[in-house]
């Protein structure tokens, strides 16, 4: 009982601490640029912390332990390590993306191509962000209900309200600071389990001696095709994901965006081994009868980490671990909420509803949007309706298949035109739908492969046939830091047509 009280106090205290960060961050918000891109003043360490925390969710923590405990073995580390590969790739284009001086991806489409393509992009980006938020609320609720022994609905509401409050208060400032804290909690919490479990089992040599060579292999369980697919899917999704690019837009300059991305990759490579090792250790201890694995048998391998932690660690560290696991899902949810609120305020409300809106109005709209989407996501999470979540999550593939090519190449491909962009958006979307609904079988691959191929073909062919003739900014030249307060348009005809 005393141990449960300690865990409860740590977790609840941590939730209040996050709200405190939101209140502190709110004092830094003067206008919508402060709220949406933190005044473009984030340094490399904050960028690395917030990017890593954003992408390390329940799947990258509990999920990897589950997979390592099961069939994937130690090769489950690639689920996270491929994110490290992805952010190494992103580092190569990060300075280019930063130079655009926009706040959202749809804003880039509006300034580089046209308003209709920006609206289309806004819609297919907001939907998956809502779905991702709901999924993270579900994961957070499950975790908190296990930790606190609360009912599921109460757990969802409590943890979701905390995320909504600090996201509304401080925008990207708040999310970045909480993400940095949450990243430390995730890494420290899970790392703390390792020495206690190894001490009890008798060392890593004992684990190796009682684990098959197949389960210790770095590639055999997951397989190379899955590793390659994860890199491509992550790269396509992250480069054109508002929750990622918003951090790059908030960097002090292009070099900071590059260094921050590389540091993020290092974090992923280092972190990947921790949950994979814990899954292997937990399986060994259950097989040897050193810990009670009944909860895992009854509820599945997703309970491997909580089961291991509760039985080998003191209550204080268990509390820190559970706070860290909650952090993994909360940080992802806050980033998704902020991304959706940013797009609605900056690219729908400002452009189509109230073009004369001042900074104070945009700030209010962004906060109200976060609140509205947060409440809707809570409702979806409480109902836990698989059909709704499936629809929202499917649009996650749509945004990558249609928008990646015109977004990425639009930064430097002079001939890239609005005609090519529209063909790219349509063909990329159709390619993903074709595989999703089994109209075609593209070598058994995920729909994003066909979508990206058709999108690229359409973009370059129609941009060649109908080339853009208006000048675009020269992204080979780094924007000086003092220009941050007076951002340059993405191209020279932006002001007139957007």
Number of separate structural domains: 1
As an assembly, this protein is single chain
Query: In sequence order, what are the helices and strands, one letter per element?
Result: HHHHHHHHHHHHHHHHHHHHH
What is the terminal separation in angstroms?
A: 62 Å
Protein described:
The chain has 498 residues and is an all-alpha fold. It has a single domain (2-401), classed as Sodium/glucose cotransporter (Up-down Bundle), CATH 1.20.1730. 77% of the residues lie in helices and 0% in strands. The chain has 21 helices and no strands. The longest helix is centred in the middle third of the chain and has 50 residues, at 152-201. The model is unreliable at 474-498 (pLDDT under 50).
What's the arrangement of secondary structure elements?
Elements: H1 2-26, H2 32-37, H3 44-55, H4 58-69, H5 78-98, H6 105-112, H7 115-148, H8 152-201, H9 204-209, H10 213-216, H11 224-239, H12 242-249, H13 254-287, H14 294-299, H15 304-312, H16 315-353, H17 359-383, H18 386-409, H19 418-436, H20 447-465, H21 494-497
Helix pairs in contact: 1-8, 1-16, 3-8, 3-12, 3-13, 3-16, 4-13, 4-16, 5-11, 5-13, 6-7, 7-8, 7-16, 7-17, 7-18, 8-13, 8-16, 8-17, 11-18, 12-16, 13-15, 16-17, 18-19, 18-20, 19-20
Family: Belongs to the sodium:solute symporter (SSF) (TC 2.A.21) family.
Membrane topology: Multi-pass membrane protein
Protein name: Putative sodium:solute symport protein
């Amino acid at each position: 009982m005393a141990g449960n009280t300690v865990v409860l106090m740590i977790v609840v205290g941590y939730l209040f601490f996050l709200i405190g960060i939101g209140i502190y961050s709110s004092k830094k918000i003067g206008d919508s640029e402060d709220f949406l891109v933190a005044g473009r003043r984030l340094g490399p360490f904050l960028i690395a912390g917030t990017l890593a925390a954003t992408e390390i969710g329940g799947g990258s923590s509990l999920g990897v332990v589950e997979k390592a405990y099961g069939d994937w073995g130690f090769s489950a580390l690639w689920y996270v390590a491929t994110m490290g590969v992805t952010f190494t790739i992103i580092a190569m284009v990060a300075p280019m993306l930063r130079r655009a001086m926009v706040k959202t991806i749809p804003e880039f489409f509006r300034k580089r191509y046209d308003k209709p393509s920006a609206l289309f992009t806004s819609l297919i980006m907001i939907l998956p962000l809502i779905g991702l938020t709901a999924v993270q609320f579900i994961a957070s609720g499950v975790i908190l209900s296990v930790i606190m022994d609360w009912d599921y609905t109460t757990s969802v509401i409590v943890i979701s309200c905390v995320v909504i409050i600090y996201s509304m208060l401080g925008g990207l400032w708040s999310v970045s600071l909480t993400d940095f804290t949450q990243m430390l909690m995730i890494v420290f919490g899970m790392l703390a389990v390792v020495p206690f479990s190894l001490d009890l089992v008798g060392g890593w040599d004992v684990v190796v001696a009682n684990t098959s060579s197949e389960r210790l292999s770095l590639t055999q369980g997951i397989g190379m095709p899955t590793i390659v697919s994860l890199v491509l899917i992550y790269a396509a999704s992250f480069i054109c994901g508002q929750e990622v690019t918003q951090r790059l837009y908030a960097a002090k300059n292009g070099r900071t965006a590059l260094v921050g991305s590389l540091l993020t990759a290092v974090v992923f490579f280092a972190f990947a081994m921790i949950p994979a090792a814990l899954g292997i250790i937990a399986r060994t201890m259950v097989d040897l009868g050193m810990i009670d694995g009944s909860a895992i048998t009854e509820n599945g391998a997703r309970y491997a980490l909580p089961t291991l932690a509760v039985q080998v660690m003191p209550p204080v560290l268990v509390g820190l671990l559970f706070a860290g696991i909650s952090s993994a899902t909360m940080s992802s949810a806050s980033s998704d909420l902020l991304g959706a609120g940013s797009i609605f305020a900056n690219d729908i409300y400002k452009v189509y509803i109230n073009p004369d809106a001042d900074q104070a109005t945009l700030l209010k709209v962004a906060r109200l949007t976060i609140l509205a989407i947060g409440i809707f996501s809570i409702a979806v999470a409480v109902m836990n309706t698989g059909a709704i979540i499936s629809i929202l999550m499917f649009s996650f593939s749509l945004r990558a298949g249609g928008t990646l090519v015109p977004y990425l190449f639009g930064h430097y491909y002079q001939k890239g035109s609005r005609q090519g962009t529209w063909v790219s958006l349509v063909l990329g979307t159709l390619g993903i739908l074709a595989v999703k609904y089994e109209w075609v079988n593209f070598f058994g691959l995920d729909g994003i492969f066909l979508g990206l191929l058709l999108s690229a073909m359409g973009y370059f062919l129609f941009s060649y046939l109908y080339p853009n003739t208006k000048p675009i900014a020269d992204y080979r030249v780094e924007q000086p830091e003092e220009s941050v307060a007076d951002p340059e348009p993405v191209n020279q005809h932006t002001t007139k047509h957007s």
